[in-house]
Design brief:
This protein is 89% helix and 0% strand. By secondary structure, the protein is mainly alpha-helical. It is rod-shaped.
Length: 100
């Protein structure tokens, strides 16, 4: 009978050890699951923000284009002002006939 008690006691001890180990593993799995979820969320945010990062590299191009457009607009406005001041260029270039 003592031998059976030892075997039963050993089994109970093993069950307790396995139960504690399984609880520890379960806690680790839950912690890792949370970490994976946080990583996936961070990855999504990174993907969403990548667009802005790519746009940042294009800023010098946009600045140069804006500068070019502003220069063209300024030239256009100056020509329009000269036209208003001097009249249309086609009238200035017509020779005056009959004047001597």
């Amino acid at each position: 009978m003592a031998s059976n008690d030892k075997t039963i006691g050993s089994c109970i001890e093993n069950v307790s050890t396995v139960k504690l180990e399984s609880e520890r593993i379960t806690e680790n799995v839950l912690r890792l699951t949370e970490t994976v979820e946080k990583y996936q969320k961070a990855k999504c945010v990174e993907d969403e923000l990548r667009v802005y990062s790519e746009q940042k590299t294009n800023i010098p191009v946009y600045v140069e284009r804006k500068k070019h457009v502003e220069e063209k607009l300024k030239d256009f406005e100056e020509r329009e002002q000269r036209k208003k001041k001097n009249g249309p260029s086609c009238v200035r270039n017509i020779p005056a006939y009959g004047r001597n």
